[in-house]
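Retro notes (design track)

What went well: tokenization of the new backbones is finally stable.
What didn't: we kept losing track of which sequence belonged to which structure.
Fix going forward: every design gets posted as structure first, then sequence, in one message. First example under the new rule, 322 residues:
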């Protein structure tokens, strides 16, 4: 299959998204998205420029975290905010965890100004961070990409919980960026010794779930996210064995609990999925990986107990009546 440019993929995704929103397509979107995933371009490895973390920044971060843990007021100075955005691409797992802890605390306690959130949001959605080196073989830029996804989820939750600073245009733009991200991202890693968690395929469904809680999204938007996130997981040629299935399952169960339309769409996804697994070469490592990922996802949803009965029957392959 000939490779496409990112610009062409993005344009086609926007057209598919628009078709779902105006109701001219439904399950027809699935083979179209699959083609885009399989036609994503590959680039040669290039140098990843990791940020330098100064001792001053580390001391400031430790100080703010200490105040947050002691339930004291935290007022970030402007210099720290700028440096915080500059270090998000770090490969230090401990630092990324501390940044997540601080941002979560500040959002929970309403200690971030809306103007600061807008700046953070613009930075996190900047392709220079969100798509950094995404077309290259496994590399350290993934740490910045996945932290951006995780922080965006926090900010989206904060906006929904009371900040109310995102416009409908902001949210729609993010839906399309997450769609493109799902098509382009192929890094399967969970935990990396010395650098901490990658976990892209946990962060991706988590932000998809949060987006689908926003009132700005219509059903076509949610179907679009369901399609790109699940198809990206389905076509992953590597084993995802560190809990990613649980996050994808939680996203699907939450979405299917909102309306029967998403159940109907998932049943169509399941039908295609099973047919593809049956036709795959059982001797290939890619086929085995996809079978592994499929089984773990289905098991996690079956164990949850919220899965609609007819979908349970489709998964286990039985017509047993209630």
């Amino acid at each position: 299959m000939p490779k496409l440019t990112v610009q062409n993929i993005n344009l086609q995704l926007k057209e598919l998204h628009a078709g779902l929103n105006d109701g001219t397509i439904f399950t027809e979107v699935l083979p179209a998205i699959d083609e885009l995933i399989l036609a994503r371009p590959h680039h040669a490895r290039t140098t990843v420029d990791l940020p330098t973390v100064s001792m001053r920044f580390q001391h400031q971060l430790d100080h703010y975290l200490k105040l947050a843990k002691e339930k004291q007021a935290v007022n970030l100075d402007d210099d720290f905010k700028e440096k915080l955005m500059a270090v998000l691409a770090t490969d230090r797992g401990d630092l990324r965890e501390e940044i997540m802890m601080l941002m979560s605390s500040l959002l929970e306690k309403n200690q971030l100004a809306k103007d600061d959130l807008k700046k953070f949001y613009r930075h996190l959605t900047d392709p220079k961070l969100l798509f950094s080196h995404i077309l290259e073989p496994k590399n350290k830029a993934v740490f910045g990409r996945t932290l951006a996804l995780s922080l965006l989820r926090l900010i989206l939750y904060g906006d929904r919980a009371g900040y109310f600073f995102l416009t409908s245009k902001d949210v729609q733009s993010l839906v399309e960026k997450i769609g493109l991200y799902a098509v382009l991202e192929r890094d399967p890693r969970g935990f990396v010794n010395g650098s901490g968690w990658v976990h892209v395929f946990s962060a991706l469904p988590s932000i998809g779930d949060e987006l689908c809680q926003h009132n700005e999204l219509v059903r076509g938007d949610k179907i679009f996210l369901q399609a790109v996130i699940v198809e990206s997981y389905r076509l992953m040629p590597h084993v995802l064995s560190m809990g990613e299935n649980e996050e994808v399952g939680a996203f699907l169960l939450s979405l299917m609990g909102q309306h029967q339309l998403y159940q109907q769409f998932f049943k169509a996804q399941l039908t295609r999925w099973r047919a593809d697994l049956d036709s795959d070469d059982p001797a290939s490592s890619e086929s085995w990986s996809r079978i592994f990922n499929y089984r773990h996802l289905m098991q996690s949803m079956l164990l949850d107990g919220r899965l609609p009965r007819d979908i349970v029957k489709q998964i286990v392959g039985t017509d047993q009546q209630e």
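Added context from the reviewer: Confidence is low (pLDDT under 50) at residues 318-322.
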